[in-house]
Design brief:
The complex is a heterodimer of chains A (about 550) and B (about 300).
Chain A: H1 2-22, E1 50-54, H2 69-78, E2 83-85, E3 91-93, E4 96-101, E5 107-112, H3 126-137, H4 146-150, H5 156-160, E6 170-174, E7 177-181, H6 189-192, H7 203-207, E8 221-227, E9 231-236, E10 249-253, H8 259-264, E11 270-272, H9 275-282, E12 292-296, E13 299-305, H10 315-323, H11 327-333, E14 340-341, H12 364-373, E15 385-390, H13 398-411, E16 415-420, H14 422-430, E17 436-442, H15 449-456, H16 470-480, H17 485-502, E18 505-510, E19 512-517, E20 521-522, E21 538-539
Parallel strand pairs in A: 1-10, 15-16, 15-17
Antiparallel strand pairs in A: 2-3, 4-5, 5-7, 6-7, 8-9, 9-10, 11-19, 12-19, 13-17, 13-18, 14-18, 20-21
Helix pairs in contact in A: 10-12, 15-16, 16-17
Chain B: H1 2-16, H2 21-26, H3 32-41, H4 48-60, H5 75-110, H6 115-129, H7 132-146, H8 164-190, H9 193-200, H10 205-228, H11 237-243, H12 248-258, H13 261-289
Helix pairs in contact in B: 1-13, 5-6, 5-8, 5-10, 6-8, 7-8, 7-11, 8-10, 9-10, 10-13, 11-12, 12-13
The chains are: A alpha+beta (about 550), B mainly alpha (about 300).
């Protein structure tokens, strides 16, 4: 017995010793205090109070590289740029205190606030902006977003393709004046500057390779700590130019876990609410209901038809598929009112959103009639139809099942489902291989151009449905350079109605985010776009 | 040799398979010009063998590249910390399985045919049939939420209360297998001549059990345990995500969907190495455990 015991026991002991001695910093990775025992603030104290919530690891904290919402959500707290968006989704000054636009709409002159400082106290100059934007346009930075957000600047595309070593459209007039020239009079250019790609970074910070580990930003918070997969801690920037930051610290717990459970346990202060919990949270008798905050998401979920593939090459067929679906019923029964039904493309809250838009309402009789009027005359003449859905599980989302059932009952069409894993799905979507597909779109910047132009102009790469209408194209091109904001929005509304009538899509719903916020968290506003969320938050009455 | 084969195969799958990491990064905004440009910057448009050989060369120097998803983060920084966490959890789970499984199996065999035997076998069957996504929330609800006995989330290292629930969730199902194996092995040994001899010699039953039966019955179990040591580096996606454990499970799944090839390659190689080491450990261990087996 001895030899066996010694061998096994020593093996286990060795393994234990090896692993526990090698495990770095385990003591530092304890989760947020259980039971919510953070230091209490019973009155508003500037620079006091902590907020804790669950989040995900950002793929990157580099403003020039970030293309996803998670990264952007941290970056907007640590860094900032010329302009930002306010709660009404209007572009407002940030580091630039004002700007002029030339008569031809192509030259923007930004006047920076004097005395804006990086976290280390260094002053921000116009040349820092030129440096930052050129860095994003430098091919060796490998930015996937520079084309989208900075590509309109004269010379940006040249630098990105390696033909130039600077962006000549960006000119430093003096320390506090920056001039940017764009290639056409695009009013939505300013909105694009609110996104991290145009934010300012400190070139010494970049050279010392500390940009993402010890960022020297200009935002309301500093990065105190980032342990991948465990936590991120942001600490207030006492010298923030945009006002006093009332919170001392924000803790993001990154390792997963059940956010709702932790909220109810008092371990986090804010949480999202999902389908499984939404019923009890919406119930007015439930105390959680008082802590519910609802915000629009500026998104649209839809079924897209491949307009070049039969039977969807006939507009009447597409319209019929629209009229055959009762969205309100699906939202009521399957989604428990979690989202709003979509009549058109633009979500509520987006400038240009049209309350009076006429959607293709649920009308099964009309749907059948349209099929008969189409060139196919009868569903029996349809080729086999497949709808492609992104996903990996064996289960299809119940909403998709409901839609397909409605097509079967109301039109007599059997639609097959194909579920494809996301990376492959994206590939095939871009190659227009799908017959019918279900996907969504969320706003990059608060301008209707981001939806209507990007998704429906016949030359646009994001036009997944292969939709082409020369009249729509012409109007979209006109709207791109229309200076009068009301005229511009009217054009977009006209275009939206035309698109809805042409039915390249079956618009399904607009997303909403449901959050629970503890009563002692004040000043929190769940913005539908990625803007700094924590600088006005304070803790009171805890 | 094995490592080269594994790395080659994985690399080829990634290269020729559908889905592109840059395209995934860009999502629906992917623009073929930009994708092509970034692929070129990263050397992803080079011929297959050039890319593969470059990878192997760098790997031999300890450079496993940078993650595509976590842009700029070196794989060598990203992985080890998480693997250690998963390994600790795995070790705790393994300890639970062994500590419960072996004695139970021994007991079941010794009391073969009695209600104790049936009871043990049924109980472990229950344990192995309960899926992680049932046991985890059940334990969480009971021990953390209702009784406030244990913390619901987070990680504090091997000797901290946070490890208890996830280790239970992961450690209980394998008990069934170990118990049955130990039981079968013990029954086999009990039937051997030398056991009868030992009893005939008049030794105490306890001595017979410990010196002759257990020691020999444990051999096949040892093989299984030894090989399963390799799985310590794999991590358990569902359990880790559920309990907020910063292990390797989540990273593995995310990397696959994001086509984060440098991370996928490194993880695959890691698992291959782990199996090789586990095999060695088992082989060497045998020389200590079984005097009949000697090498050289």
């Amino acid at each position: 017995m001895k030899r066996v015991t010694i061998a096994i026991v020593s093996l286990i002991v060795v393994l234990v010793l090896v692993f526990s001695s090698l495990a770095p910093g385990c003591k530092g990775s304890k989760a947020g205090p259980a039971g919510g025992a953070t230091p209490a603030a019973t009155r508003v104290i500037t620079g006091a109070g902590e907020l804790t919530l669950l989040s995900d690891d950002p793929p990157t904290l580099d403003p020039a590289l970030a293309g996803d919402t998670t990264s952007a959500s941290y970056i907007v707290e640590i860094f900032s740029g010329l302009v930002t968006i306010n709660r009404e989704l209007k572009v407002v000054p940030d580091i630039a205190e004002r700007w002029d636009i030339s008569d031809d709409g192509k030259t923007y002159t930004f006047y920076l606030h004097p005395n804006v400082k990086f976290h280390d106290g260094k002053e921000v100059k116009a040349s820092d902006f030129k440096y930052s934007m050129e860095r994003a346009c430098n091919p060796s930075t490998e930015s996937i977003v520079a084309d989208t957000y900075l590509g309109d600047i004269v010379g940006a595309k040249d630098m990105l393709s390696g033909k130039a070593s600077e962006v000549r459209g960006i000119q430093v007039i003096d320390d506090t004046t920056l001039q940017i020239e764009i290639d056409a009079a695009k009013p939505y250019f300013l909105a694009k500057l609110t996104y991290p790609t145009a934010f300012v970074v400190d070139n010494a910070n970049v050279k010392s390779r500390n940009l993402t580990s010890k960022p020297n930003g200009t935002g309301p918070f500093k990065l105190k700590q980032w342990q991948r997969g465990e936590k991120i801690v942001l600490e207030a920037n006492e010298n923030y130019y945009g006002g006093v930051v009332k919170l001392k610290r924000v803790n993001f717990l990154l390792a997963g876990g059940s956010s709702m459970t932790m909220y109810e346990n008092g371990e986090v202060d804010i949480t999202g609410v999902g389908l499984t919990d939404i019923e009890r949270v919406l119930d007015p008798a439930n105390p959680l209901n008082k802590e519910l905050v609802v915000a629009s998401e500026l998104s649209v979920g839809y079924v897209g038809f491949n307009c070049t593939m039969p039977p969807f090459d006939d507009v009447k067929v597409r319209q019929a598929f629209n009229h055959a679906v009762d969205k309100e019923k699906i939202i009521e029964v399957v989604l428990k009112e979690l989202v709003d039904p979509a009549k058109g493309i633009l979500p509520p809250g987006m400038p240009g959103y049209n309350e009076g838009l006429k959607g293709l309402e649920y009308d099964p009789v009309k749907a059948k009639r349209l099929i008969a009027e189409s060139k196919y005359k009868d569903v029996a003449n349809f080729p086999a139809i497949t709808i492609s859905i992104p996903g990996t599980g064996a289960a299809v989302p119940p909403t998709s099942e409901a839609i397909i059932e409605m097509w079967k009952v109301n039109l007599g069409v059997e639609v097959k489902i194909q579920q494809v894993e996301w990376a492959t799905y994206l590939d095939d979507l871009k190659r227009h291989k799908f017959h019918m597909f279900e996907v969504g779109w969320i706003a990059d910047y608060p301008d209707p151009q981001d939806f209507l132009d990007l998704l429906f102009h016949s030359n646009s790469l994001e036009n997944n449905a292969g939709y082409s209408n020369p009249e729509v194209d012409r109007l979209l091109e006109q709207a791109r350079v229309e200076k009068d904001i009301n005229a511009r929005l009217r054009i977009y509304q006209q275009v939206e109605q035309m698109i809805v009538n042409d039915a390249p899509w079956l618009p399904l719903w607009h997303g909403k985010s449901y959050l629970l916020v503890k009563p002692y968290v004040k000043g929190f506003y769940p913005a539908p776009m990625t803007i700094p969320m924590f600088k006005d938050v304070y803790i009171e009455g805890k | 040799m094995l490592l080269l084969a594994v790395s080659f195969f994985t690399f080829a799958l990634g290269y020729y398979g559908p889905g592109d990491p840059v395209q995934v990064l860009m999502g629906q905004h992917s623009n073929p010009e930009v994708v092509a440009r970034i692929r070129h910057e990263r050397g992803l448009d080079r011929p297959f063998f050039e890319q593969y050989l470059r990878y192997v060369w760098r790997a031999l120097h300890g450079d496993f590249g940078e993650s595509y998803k976590f842009q700029g983060q070196s794989v060598g920084e990203l992985i080890p910390r998480k693997v250690l966490v998963s390994a600790q959890l795995g070790l705790a789970a393994l300890a639970i399985s062994i500590v419960m499984g072996i004695p139970l199996g021994l007991m079941a065999a010794v009391k073969q045919g009695t209600w104790l035997d049936t009871g043990i076998v049924s109980a472990t069957l229950l344990g192995v049939s309960s899926p992680v996504f049932v046991t985890a929330p059940a334990l969480l609800f009971l021990l953390a939420y209702k009784l406030h006995f244990l913390p619901s989330y987070g990680w504090g290292g091997l000797f901290d209360a946070h490890i208890i629930m996830p280790a239970l969730v992961l450690g209980i199902p394998p008990i069934a297998g170990l118990t049955r194996l130990m039981r079968a092995s013990t029954l086999d040994v009990i039937g051997q001549d030398y056991v009868r001899t030992a009893r005939a010699k008049g030794l105490l039953e306890r001595t017979v059990l410990s010196r002759h039966i257990a020691r020999n019955a444990i051999l096949p179990v040892f093989t299984v345990i030894g090989l399963s040591l390799a799985t310590l580096v794999e991590g358990a996606f569902i359990t880790e995500t559920f309990f907020g454990i910063p292990g390797i499970g989540r990273l593995t799944v995310d990397s696959l969907f994001a086509r984060d090839y440098p991370v996928i390659m490194a993880l695959t190689l890691l698992v291959a190495v782990a199996y090789i080491i586990a095999n060695l450990v088992v082989d060497i261990g045998y020389t200590f455990l079984d005097p009949r087996i000697r090498y050289g």
